[in-house]
Amino acid sequence: MAITKKIILCGFGNVGRALARLIDAKQHDLERQYGLALKLLAVVDIDGAAVAEEMGLPPGRLTDFIEDGGAVEKFEGSGHPGLTAADLLAQRKADILVETTPTNLKDGEPARTHFMAAIDNGLDIIAANKGPLVLDYRRILERAREKGVQIRFSAATAAALPTLDVGRLCTAGARIEAIEGILNGTTNYILTRMAQEGCPYEDALQDAQRLGIAETDPTLDVEGLDTRNKIVLIANTLLALDLAPGEVETTGIAGVTPADITAAHEAGKVIKLLGSARLSENGPVVKVAPEALPADHPLAGVNLSEKGISYDTDTMGRITVTGGHSSPTGAAAAMLKDLIHLVKLGV
Ligand code: HSE
Q1: What is the pLDDT of residues 196-251, one digit of tens each?
Q2: Is 189 within 8 Å of 330 (Cβ atoms)?
Q3: Which of 31, 87, 96, 264 could join 269 via S-S bond, C-beta 3.0 to 4.6 A?
Q4: CATH class name, domain 173-322
Q5: Cα–chain-centroid distance for residue 105?
């Protein structure tokens, strides 16, 4: 007998729709492999919601409807104009909030309100949105702990590249002393195209936007802010810090010129945007900056929209994971993984 989990999905942009498509495509595998049935109780977007409490919404048909120009609040007799996530969460009919609204780093809204409502109503949270966690990590996690609510955010910490899972689970018992990561697919894509093809920066950025990799506001990518947000979340989680984003010295890739790339190449190096965190005697050193990596650096061969992370540990040496390219499907897959881990493995 499968366990059924009822989901409220907030935000139905590229990532939310990719998750709906995955749930649709994988429902039989999920039941067969994990004994897990995912029921999409509601999808909430800017102007309202679609809700189907008994049967769950048909994820594929709803996604087709939206991609054909529809709106969730007008979907097949299930639409509710003006219905908000907070209204739905307060009804306590679902088990899990999946948060995929666009990241807002000013006040974290609307995701912060969704997080708090989910915590207060006892729903676990799977988040792609980084805003509330980057701005208020400790307070949100403490409140969740008090209420016995679990929060997982692989999709906010480089998504298909397993960063937190490796750092939390695979290095258990070891001490992580330093972290280096290529954590943003858009900037890695741009730098790779510039280095390998001499592609102009603007053209590569437009291609990254066309591929749906870039943030809704791509300055978050190119100014290094997305990498900063990810290294803040990863360092806070794995190094037990309480960093605010403003504490991280951040330089993006706008200042990287074709001449810099050529000079690095001639020196046998390759320029990558790195987020790094290191524990020193004087406290943590966390920063984001383009760096020229020697060819034998474990992240030097990570290209295009792929990413990578490398941990220095006391007992396991250096552990590097690469791959997991940025894409809406990759982000959705990271959320599905979190969901399976949480429900079936309790991790
Ligand atoms: N824009 C991000 C990237 C994906 O390029 O990797 C979401 O974090």
Answers
A1: 999 999 999 999 999 888 877 899 999 999 999 999 999 999 999 999 999 999 99
A2: no
A3: 264
A4: alpha beta
A5: 14
